[in-house]
What does this fold into?
Amino acid sequence: MRTAIALGSNLGDRLHHLRAARDSLRALSPDKEILQAPIYQTAPIDCPEDSPDFFNTVVEIDYAGSPHDLLDATQAIEFHLGRQPGTERNAPRVVDLDILYFGDSRESGGLLEIPHPRLTSRRFVLQPLAEIRPDLVLPGDSATIAEHLDHLDSDEPALSLVQRAW
It folds into this structure.
């Protein structure tokens, strides 16, 4: 099942943390193609005051398990890389992994919502995703990712390209 995961980091060596998270996600899908968007620097959105800027990107992998198995795996990666449990909502973090979509699956309620409920309203997710999957139409939607980005009504500042190939 093709699935996309948003990666973010705003503590420590952000590029290193994103690479480590990407490599861990790649290990969940050995011998399969991984798509990775460029990395962008983004201002913190809905975070505590004085939070550092994020590095954000999106990767897409092929995953054979269930959405809940993937959620368990992404949370394990976060904690392995140093994310602290039970911190303030949107507090600065070493790494944050969010499942954006899981093939044509739709889930709501509990710990997992697929597609991610804020995917189409956040530039720091849409712009990198549009780099790798501009023509994707999410389950239950009629617009492509590129169309959502073109029509995004957001106060988010522009993203700064950090690294195209990483």
User: Anything to note?
Assistant: The chain has four helices and six strands. The first strand starts at residue 2 and ends at 9. The longest helix spans residues 14-27.
